[in-house]
Amino acid sequence: MTKVSIGFRGWRFEESEVFDEDGGYRPLPEMDEDTRERIERIPTLSGQPCDVCYLEDEAGERDSRNEPTAVYGEPGAEVLVCDEHEATFYYWFLDAGGDAHEGEPELQDAFHEWVAAGHREPDHYEGPDHVETDPENIPAPDADDLYGLPVDLPEDEQARLDLLEGQDPDAIDGDLDLDADYPTADE
User: Fold this and answer.
1) Sign of torsion, CA 17 78 93 33?
2) Is pLDDT above 70 for 138?
3) Is this structure's pTM higher than 0.90?
4) Domain contains 142
5) Enclosing domain of residue 97
């Protein structure tokens, strides 16, 4: 089976999982959950800046932000890096202990903390070599395929969600005290 990247390097997909026999995208419901989550995230990630550029810009070290070319991590907690900073991520992940967060949502926060603390790869570190084969030949996704399909569920199987908060309002404890002092990581 062939692995392919779509939109960004980093996330790899089984070609047969994403594309049908005619080379078009499979409908999202036919994809496994992990693949579907990642495919659905790609349009959202496209307009974001490189995480390292963004953190450097916030610290006053940079005047511009590069578009990311690679995505790593789990959907919803991704690390986005441009060509210039992919070596930074690789060094952190392979040589500075980042692999301890592999497959975990904490990977994003741990990498951001490492970068914000001023850490970078050594000057001699070159990062990965990539081989791109025929990237223009991958079909553009149909925008209609990127959104979930409506599913009719029996009422007892439907979840009640507050779309503004993203939580089940019935699950919220009425005795929640938002003014309480909770311990922090510093304590």
Assistant:
1) negative
2) no
3) no
4) no
5) 3-128
